[in-house]
Design goal:
2 domains, 215 residues, Glutathione S-transferase Yfyf (Class Pi), Chain A, domain 2, globular, 10 helices, 4 strands, Glutaredoxin, homodimer
């Protein structure tokens, strides 16, 4: 049974692998699971047919036989639970990897997304510079903490796991911001992720969608 | 083996059950698992001893034999996996409940927290009113979507689950904002959660900490 995921027909990230299908594609590539992709227009995202799968009208979703799932990290976790290679065997170590998945989405990602939204939506407001300083500080605090954790580690836990798939995709949203250049430990961590063949295949797959839409 | 969690010695929520130990306490009460609490000052949160358990210097943490965990939703999931009653039996339904846990923390909570932070940190800035309008709109969009999902349901999935523990605790942060009054479906959902005896025990336990600190 080949699962089907959804992705943007025309991703606002212009093929840079920043949309949330990227983590799901990467996880599927890591475990060698082929998948199909259903591309959705922005209008289709908000239609009832899609909202039945994704109550918030977002991508990605995941359909596999009778199961439908949403939330990229939950899909990555499902893939990791159904295939070997993305979670430790021990129950305790597995719980710790899942904790890092929540940390990525609920502690590290929000200030990064908030900063991106301010750049996108508030750049013309008179307060923009002052607010950006506050937002930068919040991102930097999280990165400093994460950097301390990664200082003596290649991956969040003992071996590469689903947690790294989620965390690296979250951190990649900082590309171009200058933060990764400030944080060599985190930059190396992201680069280690991006070097993995499964990451590269996933990246090319999502880039091909954007290239086809442009052509 | 009685697990130990950490919580604020003096919670900034003044005992209203909005700190992130609340979901963990609630889950533990739902499954009837006694627990101990180690209270931490704000200074202790940032010390190396605590950061070894919680890299971002936050509460709660969870210690049980050799396992240490952080991120409240990950702890709730661990509790739900170790005890019956908080997750469906079927693997597919279980994955869907976990998806809602991620949705609560990564899709619903961030705009709510962002709005709280703006009220707390930016109320004296000239941009505050204009920004608050934008933030209100983002919160309202999420609540409208969630309300549509809950319109014909008592709980996020077929029965009460760990997902509801996490979602209700996230939504309770809106108390006093007026949003719950605008959203009767969501207000009823939160009230259903708050009526559960396990919620009440957890709420009283965290309030007792605050009362003792005040006394």
């Amino acid at each position: 049974m080949i699962p089907t995921i959804t992705a943007f027909a025309q991703s606002p990230d212009r093929g840079r692998g920043l949309a949330r299908d990227m983590a799901v594609r990467w996880a599927l590539e890591e475990v060698g699971q082929p998948y199909e992709v259903r591309l959705l227009s922005f209008a289709a995202l908000k239609e009832p047919a899609h909202r039945a799968l994704q109550p918030f009208g977002q991508i990605p979703t995941y359909e596999e036989a009778a199961l439908t799932l949403f939330e990229s990290a939950a899909i990555v976790l499902r893939v990791a639970e159904q295939h070997p290679g993305l979670l430790p065997h021990s129950t305790d170590a597995r719980a710790q990897a899942i904790a890092w998945m929540f940390a990525a989405k609920s502690t590290v990602e929000p200030p990064i997304v908030e900063r991106s939204m301010a750049l996108l939506l508030e750049a013309d407001r008179p307060w923009h510079a002052e607010r950006l300083t506050m937002l930068d500080e919040r991102v930097r605090t999280r990165l400093d903490d994460l950097s301390r954790w990664l200082a003596y580690r290649d991956w969040l836990e003992e071996a590469f796991s689903a947690a790294d798939v989620v965390m690296v995709t979250v951190l990649r949203r900082l590309g171009g911001s200058g933060f990764l250049e400030e944080q060599p430990t985190i930059a190396s961590y992201v680069a280690r992720g991006e070097t993995r063949p499964a990451f590269k295949r996933a990246f090319e797959a999502q880039r091909a969608v954007f290239a086809a839409a442009e052509a």
